[in-house]
Amino acid sequence: MSEYLLNATGIKKYFPIRQGILQRVVGQVRAVDNVDIKIRKGSVIGIVGESGCGKSTIGRVLCNLIPATEGTIEFDGHKIEAQTTATNKEFRRRVNFVFQDPFSSLNPRMTVAQLIGEPLLAHNLVSSKKEMTIRAAYFLEKCGMFADQIYRYPHQFSGGQRQRICIARALAAESDFIVCDESVSALDVSIQAQIINLLLDLKETYDLTYVFISHDLDVVRFISDYVSVMYLGNIVESASKDELYSNPMHPYTQALLSAVPTFDKAKRQNRIILEGDIPSPSNPPPGCRFHTRCQEVMPICSKEEPVTVEVSPGHTVRCHKFS
Questions:
Q1: Closest CA to 49 of 41, 58, 40, 60
Q2: pLDDT 10s digit of each residue in the chain, 323 long?
Q3: Measuring CA to CA, which of 92, 117, 149, 294 is 20 to 30 A from 78?
Q4: Cα-Cα end-to-end distance for the chain
Q5: Burial of 246 (0-12, 13-18, 19+ CB in 10 A)
Q6: Spatial distance between the Cα atoms of 200 and 92, rounded to a whole number of angstroms
């Protein structure tokens, strides 16, 4: 058996650009372009990067919410492909997703009992609606709410409470792999801390594995074991959180970390300001995709695409400086 719960290799996700009355394909948006991710059971991997870099897309591909254009995904030793196989039905039960906006991801016409109980019925985990209601109340309490709130509707809750409902729904089908896509970014800071602590408590209780997608580097540092940095569809650096935050090697990672708010005047003065905008994913620059904004650019950067190099055990960088 593999040491990795999920192993994604060569993942690409292109979205067609259509124009005209006949909607002909005139180009491709390369949202994710040749990404490899390996996730150990019981770990938390954080994915960070600027808006539009492909973080949410890779999260959806890993959950098979959208199919990959190319690449393979193995979950617990089984290859995930067609959506009708028995293997994929088990995959659907064990893998879940917590979206950024809890209100839009909850059906406003369904009660909390129905929302949490829906996956239980879909996977034949309960034999009656009474048992479904009991299980829904149990998971709602595990997420820090009261059992008698299962008869309410989503609009009757605050944002933090709705996110707790989404987490309870993800747990209800006995899932052990959860992708959290900016799941705390829309919440107040104090509520963010509560939800993050809840996720960590549930991880220990149910032996969960998380992919935590965020643009908040401090939050990612707190919750993650490993961190991957994305830029324009590529993972440019991956390492354990301690290694990456103490020894960032890719120029983009260094720029991101220098932008984290701090009370240290010396660190504020050393902030790296990236010039220019992120290139379009429908027309990425040749060679290294970061070379148009990099302060350490070399002639080779605009000609050849860099390869991923392991600079130390578990620390990989995609940059010509280390090739």
A1: 58
A2: 567 899 999 999 999 999 988 889 888 999 999 999 999 999 999 999 988 899 999 999 999 899 999 999 999 888 887 555 656 788 888 999 999 888 888 999 999 999 999 889 888 888 888 999 999 999 999 999 999 999 999 999 998 999 999 999 999 988 999 999 988 887 888 889 999 999 999 999 999 999 999 988 889 999 999 999 999 999 999 999 999 999 999 999 999 988 877 766 666 667 787 887 788 899 999 999 999 999 889 999 999 999 999 999 999 999 999 87
A3: 117
A4: 32
A5: exposed
A6: 22
If you write DSSP's letter for every residue of 109-151 in order, what string do you get?
TS-HHHHHHHHHHHTT--SSHHHHHHHHHHHHHHTT--GGGGG
Instruction: Give the C-alpha separation, 12 to 35, whole Å.
Output: 7
Task: Judge whether 248 and 316 are in contact, CB under 8 Å.
Answer: no
9 in Cβ contact with 72 (< 8 Å): yes
Tokens of 288: 């290294």
Which superfamily is assigned to 4-322 in CATH?
A: P-loop containing nucleotide triphosphate hydrolases (3.40.50.300)
Cβ atoms of 123 and 93 within 8 Å: the answer is yes
What does DSSP say about strands 24-40 and 4-19: parallel, antiparallel, or unpaired? antiparallel
Q: Which two tokens stand for residue 232?
A: 């324009």
- What count of other Cβ atoms lies within 10 Å of the Cβ of residue 283? 10
**Distance between CA atoms of residues 85 and 295, nearest Å:** 49
DSSP β-bridge partners for residue 237? 229, 317
Paired tokens of 280: 């379009």
Tokens of 213: 């997608």
Tell me phi and psi for residue 282, to 5 degrees. -85, -15
CA distances from 104 to 8, 64, 261 (A): 29, 20, 31
